[in-house]
Amino acid sequence: MGAQAFDEGVAKLLESYRAIPDGATVRLAKKTSNLFRKRAKNPYPGLDVSGLDRVISVDAAAKTADVAGMCTYENLVAATLPYGLAPKVVPQLKTITLGGAVTGLGIESTSFRNGLPHESVLEIDILTGAGEIITATPTNEHADLFFGFPNSYGTLGYSVRLKIELEPVPPYVALRHVRFGSLTELQETMTSIIADGSYDGEQVDYLDGVVFTADECYLTLGRQTADEGPVSNYTGMDIFYRSIQHATCITRDRLTIHDYLWRWDTDWFWCSRAFGAQNPRVRRFWPKSLLRSSFYWKLIGLDHRFNIGDKLNARKGEPPSERVVQDIEVPIENTTAYVAWFLENVPIEPIWLCPLKLREPAVPGSDTARPWPLYPLEPHRVYVNVGFWSAVPVTPGDPGHTNKLIEHKVAELDGHKSLYSESFYSPEEFDELYGGESYRLLKKRYDPRGRLLDLYAKAVKQQ
């Protein structure tokens, strides 16, 4: 992208901010979103971030990158892999932006050793609600915003530039798909792998899992390797999540590092089946360029606009659907309890598992971890993200019935859930879970005139 192009993008951003009338809510002028909750139409011009969608520079020697806030991970990875480097955490979908993963949280199979994407940020330029661009680091006068920015979802400001850490990656990833006949055995093995960094004497660099049923669940263990050899391809007729299933205890596979990072994007995990894309007769004629999450997002947008799914259900004499599209985290010791409850109460499968642990220390030069107040996971504690993305029949007279059940169960098991989809918390519950007092102090300092939406209003009231 280069410094000059970045400066021009910043100038466009500031000009668009100044064009928004006083008293009007400041929002991004984006046509796309990775949020599953409703986005209210904005009657005013939005922030022009069109010039902030690329990598500014890569410092291969320092293993860092300067990245504009709206750069997608697809573009970020394309810029770093030629140097044999990758972000420490690469969320699963190509269209997720670096700024979005930091302000809205992201996760992937390196999170058991590298934490969450915001923990790889060294400094960040943020356009605040007051219209100022400030630089926040873990130790400067804006450290409160640096640590409070993750999970703020654009209600404290928008990322303009982020300097992030990178890690070396060899060309390939060797995979083992390990099958378990019980959730308890899977949980125990996951705990052991995270403690040792290995399984059966072999290093584990990437770790996630898929649960099909209580007695058919898998961990996928990835090992970085430079060894040459044949690789699989899951960007055409073959479907990655189906390759995980097998009758034996362990099967092996190999992917290029590029294809491993994007292994879930081709079919949006397994969600492409809702569009018929996994039907072999359909898939054979489905343009390969449209086997990707960005196209499925367009189909979802059409469904939201025209209620296509509910209309089709009505024609079949079926009730409308309640979307149950969530990622939650529970402490690893509660994984079996949560997943078993979910399988018994929510008719959705498969589900995704991804362990995570905060990096230590959060402040360079310090021996202690500093919590991230708006998503307060405990330092030194391992959690497991459980992802499930589908729909269930609505419960008459109780909008969001299943999502509310999930929220209550997650809270009971000392967990949290991400805020990219529908939420139904009371203001008191929300405050307790998402750093209420810390958030109010940050809001007062960095958005004193309330130009940006409030987090509770954005995540729960769906304004």
End-to-end separation in angstroms reads 34 Å
Query: Based on DSSP secondary structure assignment, what is the total number of beta strands?
Result: 16
The poorly predicted ranges are: none
Mean pLDDT: 90
What topology, given as strand order, has the largest sheet? 12-7-11-10-14-15-13-16
CATH fold naming of the domain at 3-169: Uridine Diphospho-n-acetylenolpyruvylglucosamine Reductase, domain 3
CATH classification, class level of the domain at 3-169: Alpha Beta
Describe this protein's structure.
This protein has helices at 3-19, 73-80, 98-104, 111-114, 143-148, 183-196, 240-244, 257-261, 280-283, 293-306, 308-315, 335-345, 401-412, 427-433, 436-446, 455-461; strands spanning 55-59, 64-68, 85-87, 121-128, 133-136, 157-168, 172-180, 198-199, 202-203, 206-213, 216-225, 250-256, 321-331, 351-357, 382-393, 416-417. It is 30% helix and 23% strand. It is an alpha+beta fold and 463 residues long. The protein starts with a helix and ends with a helix. The strands form 3 sheets. The chain has an 8-stranded antiparallel beta sheet. Among the domains are: 3-169, Uridine Diphospho-n-acetylenolpyruvylglucosamine Reductase, domain 3 (2-Layer Sandwich), CATH 3.30.465; 172-263, no CATH class.
Outline the secondary-structure elements:
Layout: H1 3-19, E1 55-59, E2 64-68, H2 73-80, E3 85-87, H3 98-104, H4 111-114, E4 121-128, E5 133-136, H5 143-148, E6 157-168, E7 172-180, H6 183-196, E8 198-199, E9 202-203, E10 206-213, E11 216-225, H7 240-244, E12 250-256, H8 257-261, H9 280-283, H10 293-306, H11 308-315, E13 321-331, H12 335-345, E14 351-357, E15 382-393, H13 401-412, E16 416-417, H14 427-433, H15 436-446, H16 455-461
Antiparallel strand pairs: 1-2, 2-6, 3-6, 4-5, 4-6, 7-11, 7-12, 8-9, 10-11, 10-14, 13-15, 13-16, 14-15
